[in-house]
Write a structure and sequence with these properties.
- The structure is a single chain.
- By secondary structure, this protein is of the alpha/beta class.
- The chain is 52% helix and 15% strand.
């Protein structure tokens, strides 16, 4: 008789259970010979998780089984075949169809309905135990952090982490870059975008050795307390070697605050729609640009991105749209809504769920979910009773039912949210009318900041497409769509 042995070990198995390839090989081969095998073939996987079926040794063993190259398979434990019950059942059924006897060292396998049921139950319990282990590991990480240790892989620019010793040390070439970033920012008239540009021009690699420096990455470095020796993990601070002295770090924080304050208070060339416009042609957000056009400087909106590291640079040739014309078009739409607040409510409601009542769709989804659950129970009952002659088709059906259930549950959550928003909107219609009346009385006297607040209260998004006439006034050949939203609070009157 020809026999085969399948052995698998991962790093965690060696630590937790003392399993090793050599130990498994010796024990399994010995059992095969006791059972009368004259020839034993060993298939193995080292350092590969049992949660996946894509393992070289396992694939080779299954192929040999299909070709009839052995009649007996010896395995230490069902977990060695797979850590998932469904995969265990799949492999077991596949081997039996090939006429192969399955032998476990640490599990009494019986080819009877009762034996199959016990096999299934054992696999389910094993999965439950693994989930408990994951939960304990998560709590263990938090405990380790409270004691000042590094609970997870520490991947921070400027440092390197040794998981065997748990020590954090400097990565010298990256440490120098961190020092340069802080020194440039605190001692020169340069911002995060300028620093990113300088790093890119000097060919300084990022941590991943790919891509370019982005200003947001520079800002994250400048604001990260890890560089003064305090690494944040789930609300706790863990001490690590500092790269920057506290004085330099807090000077950087003051400059960051000042930059944010100046940016927020910049009113010289205010843009009413800043942060609300999207270019439908390239997908970028559109921002204000005080640009020179035929010798004259004008306020315009553009989807062109000049900041370092931005993946999509925008439309080419560069698109510019006159701010006055675009803002006037949106402002006219807002005035129309204010004069007809019921229309505002209808448009906002239409963007939530369309014109249909979501409750009807939810009832239909509930019926489908109940049908799917019955189907799953029926298939599980078939497995529990040991009727595994069509295991492949059962596996496919279970997987398909799971996908359909997840898709329906996701859609149900969306509809429930839409229903809540719809109900909130109905409750706010009187409030919307009151807001509209109070604003209409003083519409012509609103200051820029009040106008901007009103726009943000009523407008969800402005979508712009087309290029217009180069250098032309107005919005000829430009399509503008203004989407409404529910006012979240009253505008001061």
């Amino acid at each position: 008789m020809r026999a085969a042995v399948y052995i698998r070990v991962s790093t965690d198995d060696q630590v937790k259970h003392g399993y090793s390839l050599a130990e498994q090989r010796e024990a399994c081969c010995s059992r095969a010979r006791i059972l009368g095998a004259q020839e034993v073939t060993v298939f193995s996987d080292e350092g590969i998780s049992g949660s996946t079926l894509e393992r070289p040794g396992l694939n080779e063993m299954r192929e040999a089984a299909r070709e009839g190259r052995f009649q007996l398979l010896v395995v230490r434990d069902p977990d060695r075949l797979s850590r998932k019950l469904a995969h265990q059942l799949l492999i077991t059924d596949e081997l039996e169809k090939c006429g192969i006897k399955l032998e476990f060292l640490d599990f009494d396998w019986k080819d009877t309905p009762e034996g199959r049921l016990f096999y299934s139950i054992r696999g389910a319990i094993a999965e439950y135990e693994r989930e408990k282990i994951r939960d304990r590991m998560g709590r263990g990480k938090e405990q380790k952090a409270r004691q000042g240790g590094i609970p997870i892989n520490f991947d921070v620019f400027g440092y390197q982490y040794d998981p065997e010793t748990g020590k954090v040390s400097y990565l010298e070439h990256e440490k120098k870059v961190v020092v340069d970033i802080f020194n440039w920012f605190t001692s020169e008239d340069i911002g995060a975008n300028g620093i990113a540009k300088r790093l890119n021009e000097n060919g300084i690699p990022t941590r991943r050795r790919a891509g370019r420096w982005h200003r947001q990455v520079v800002k994250q470095i400048l604001a990260n307390t890890v560089y003064i020796g305090l690494w944040r993990f789930k609300g706790m601070y863990i001490k690590v070697p500092p790269i920057i002295d506290e004085n330099t770090f807090y000077r950087a924080q003051e400059k960051l605050k000042e930059v944010r304050r100046l940016y927020a208070g910049k009113q010289k060339h205010g843009y009413l729609l800043s942060g609300l416009i999207t270019c439908a042609d390239c997908g970028n957000t559109m921002t204000g640009a005080y640009a020179r056009w035929w010798g004259k400087r004008e306020r315009r909106y553009t989807c062109n991105k000049t900041c370092q590291g931005y993946k999509n640079e925008g439309c080419r040739p560069v698109k510019y749209i006159l701010a006055d014309a675009l803002e006037e078009a949106v402002w006219n739409q807002i005035q129309t809504w204010l004069m007809d607040p019921d229309r505002l409510a209808r448009e906002a409601m239409g963007q939530i769920v369309g014109q249909n009542d979501p409750r009807e769709q939810i009832m239909v989804i509930n019926k489908h979910l109940a049908s799917i659950e019955k189907g799953q129970e029926a298939l599980i009952d078939v497995i529990a009773k040991g009727y595994l002659d069509h295991m492949d088709s059962i596996e496919k059906k279970l997987a398909e039912l799971k996908r359909r259930k997840e898709k329906l549950e996701k859609r149900k959550e969306e509809l429930l949210l839409a229903y809540r928003q719809r109900e909130e909107l109905f409750a706010k219609i009187d409030e919307i009318r009151e807001i509209s009346e109070s604003i209409l009385r003083r519409l012509d006297d609103l200051a820029f900041t009040e106008k901007r607040s009103l726009v943000r209260a009523l407008v969800k998004q402005v979508i712009v497409s087309g290029r217009g006439v180069p250098g032309g006034n107005g919005l000829r050949f430009i399509n503008v769509t203004v989407l409404a939203k529910i006012p979240e609070q009253k505008i001061s009157s």
